[in-house]
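Sanity check record (used in CI):
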Amino acid sequence: MRKTFFTTTGLGVLILGGYVSGVTQSQAQEAPPAAPAAPAQAAEPSADPTTTVTVTGKKPQNKIDRQVYDNTKDIDSATGTASDALNKVPSVNVDPTGNITLRGNSNVQVYIDGKPSVMMQGDNRAGALQSMSSGDIDSVEVMTNPGAQFSSEGSGGIINLVMRKNRKPGNTGAVNANVGDGRYNASINGARNSGKYTLSGGLNIRHDVRPSRSGSVQSRLDANGDPISTTEQVGASEGKNDNISANAGIDYNLSDKDQIGAQTSYSRREMDNTSDDTYALYNADGDFTSGYTRHSAVTGPRDDFSFGVRWDHTGALTGETLKTDLRLGRSTGNTATDALNYPTDGSDTTRETRKVQSDFHNAVLTVDYVRPFGDAQMTTGFQITQDDNSFNNTATGPDVLGVPATDNDRLTNSFAYKQTVSAAYMTWQTPIGEKWIVMGGLRAEALDLDTENFGVPGTADDTTSHISYTKFNPSAFATYTLNDTTKLRFSYSHRLQRPSPQDLNPFQTYQDPQNVSAGNADLKPAETDSFEAGYEKSGKVNYQIRAYYRKTEDSITSYSYFLPVANPSDTPVLLTTKRNLGSGEAGGLEGNFDGKLSAKISVRVNGNLAWNKLTTPTTGEQEATTLSGRISMDYNATTKDRFQISYFGRGKQLTGQGYTGPFGMGNMSYRHQYTPKAALVVTLQDPFRTAKFRTVVDTDSIHSESYRSLQGQVFMVGLSYTLGGPSTQKDGDQPRWNGPRGPGGGGGNWGGHGGGPM
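Expected output for Outer membrane protein beta-barrel domain-containing protein:
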């Protein structure tokens, strides 16, 4: 089914005013664009819209469509992972398994430098977030209502990881090394900026060991809600992960008006996870019927590769730009599971194996154009995104240990898909009077998806499908200036949640003897209308208050049921799939505060009071009110010593069949600046041992409660040394170098989209 990239559909090409059109939203100014940013100079590459919003200090700088948080101000940014960095961003939560939510919504897109990345798609994302170094990230942009220049995919919004880039002339670099409980990491990065060109590169290694414990009680219910059978499970696991990554890039100024660049990166993740679980089965009367102990080992590598090229052109008009960007990415993985089952009654030990091979190809072509018209500004562009992916699943057993393995036809299958999304968009921004700046946009997206399912050779299980549709997604933004430091903001966007191609795969995928999963070929995209209104005040003390509301139709949620059994004594198997189950509403009030309590103490506080309602045929109407928040406090004891403590908590979250319980975790850090170039960093993760969470499933046929707790406290010690000329960085800052850019390519000089008007 493999085909050539970029076979375009009807929206594939848009030509406007002699340019292939496009936009970088951060070129739009809060004030009328009569005095826009100056054109790029040969002595210094023009900044990409994504990096023009990098925050100075700890204060978030907000654009009309996003909030920006400076990751370099965290003491432990060089020791942690991307998951750790995101868990310090207001309204963003990453649970211990790597699943990310924004204001409680898990349908979130994660970009790298303003573009989609294959390493942040599907099951790849959790592993990538837990292996990527936090030190590679310059800032985190949160877009709860993205504008028309971004893909409409993701009802919860977009989180953009802006990677570090070198801006200063001359030679710069940094060396970091950290060691802790069962883990270590190290990196070396450097860049040379001559004014005419910039060369950059880096190498990172990371080793993590993550032990955890889990348990569950799962009951199959009859029509009256009474248990037919119950399965109890307790277990312990240890996950070992090794990651190595490298990157290199070049930016070159052809002239005062033209700049080209190229970037490549490679990373390899090795996984070695072991677990021991004990299962006990009980009948309707609560009598023990059977049980077994299961030992499993999951191993396998994943390789990610990316390459990108770009061309930026400054037009004849002040503020007129054309940007062209091509990103290619590939991710391959081979995962092998080997499990032994030891029955408690002393009967034969059985063995099961499973292998999963995945091969993901991703390509993104973007052409952007921005042009002022007096006090107004037009932005327009197109983007073609193509994914060409395949999965191959093979399974054997369960077989008696020592007997030749037999194929498990039910769990042996292949699935392939090719998806092309062709999009064109336009926005128009204009001032109204002296107080208002308004911007409206429309994005048209045409999807073309082909899937192929291959069952066991020689059977009639092979199927193909074709899905195509076009959606029009409007957006609107407005800013009202009350005075120099106070603004009101309003926004609206129409968002989609497309089922992932894996969600469409109808074949069953093995989890363990009691659990399998499968996709649903009949899934439709969920559609969300999102509204926000906010008040913000800036100055010595900064605070924002935002009210939001989302309405979703055809919500895509997990749906679980027990497969039929021949007789009540058989072991029940739970199948989890996806369905369009009803509708959902969510709203809330979010507040942020950032200010100094004294000359040496500063504090950041975020709180979110959220209301959620889900209406489904299986559970009826569910409602929950959740309070979540985080606090971070900095204490600058001396000019060389700095302490930081942070804690976040997340309340109850509805899942469609139940809920996940509250979850929270803290972090403590200390930094000592020995010299202008050398620093010591000490970190204690999860000091209060609260890294545990609980999940409840409660339907007419199932009641299940499960928990998982992580290692707990993790102690890390690190050293950081800046290379190059004399250091001018402030205490706590990290040197800025060109970090790795995923298949989404780099932002900064890479043409990633920035924010709208201030």
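Residues 454 and 460 are 9 Å apart (CA to CA). If this sentence no longer matches the regenerated tokens, the check is flagged for review.
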